[in-house]
Amino acid sequence: MDYGMIGKIEKAKRYAQERGRIHFKSFTVAIDGENNAHHVQFTDGIWDCDCEFFRSRGVCSHTMAMEEVLKDMLPVRTEA
Ligand SMILES: [Zn+2]
Fold first, then answer.
1. CA of 73 to the centre of ligand 1 (A)
2. 41 near 47, Cβ under 8 Å?
3. How many angstroms separate the CA atoms of 49 and 18, rounded?
4. CA of 9 to the centre of ligand 1 (A)
5. pLDDT tens, 34-68?
6. What burial letters (b/e) apply to 24-42, b meaning 16+ CB within 10 Å?
7. What's the distance, CA 29 to chain centroid?
8. What's the rounded Cα separation, in Å, for the pair 58 and 13?
9. In contact, 62 and 31? CB cutoff 8 Å
10. CA 19 – ligand 1 centroid, Å
11. How far apart are the CA of 76 and the centre of ligand 1, in A?
C-alpha cells in the first residue's frame, strides 16, 4: 500500500472516533417492526416516520431506535 493511502486510513480512523465532526443532513432507513417495515426519514434535524404512532405523537419507537443507534451523533432534540 502506498504511503498516501496509509495516511488517509489513519485519518479516517481518527475522524470516526471524533464523532462531533460528523453532521447528518438527511437519511432514510427502513426498520423492520414486529408487523411491518417502517420508513424513517431524517432531514435537517426533523424526523418523520410512516407509522401511525408517529402521526399522533411526533415520535415513535422507530425514530427513538435511530436516536439510540446514532446517539452523540445527532443534534439534541428539543421537545415540542
Ligand atoms: Zn414509527
1. 20
2. yes
3. 29
4. 37
5. 989 999 999 999 999 999 999 999 999 999 999 99
6. eeeeeeebeeeeeebebeb
7. 9
8. 35
9. yes
10. 26
11. 19
Q: Scanning the structure block, which residue is given the C-alpha cell 464523532?
A: 19
Residue 80 clears pLDDT 60, i.e. is over it: no
Cell numbers describing residue 49:
416516520
The candidate with the shortest Cα–Cα distance to 30, out of 39, 22, 19, 17, is 39
Q: Which residue has the cell 481518527?
A: 14
Residues of the chain with pLDDT > 90, as a percent, come to 71
Give the pairing of strands 37-43 and 46-49.
antiparallel
Whether residue 60 contacts residue 47, with contact meaning beta carbons closer than 8 Å, is answered with no
Residues with CB under 5 A from ligand 1 (ion): 38, 49, 51, 54, 60, 62
Contacts of 15 (CB under 8 A, 6+ apart): 21, 22
Q: What is the DSSP string of 16-35?
A: HH-GGG----EEEEEEE-SS
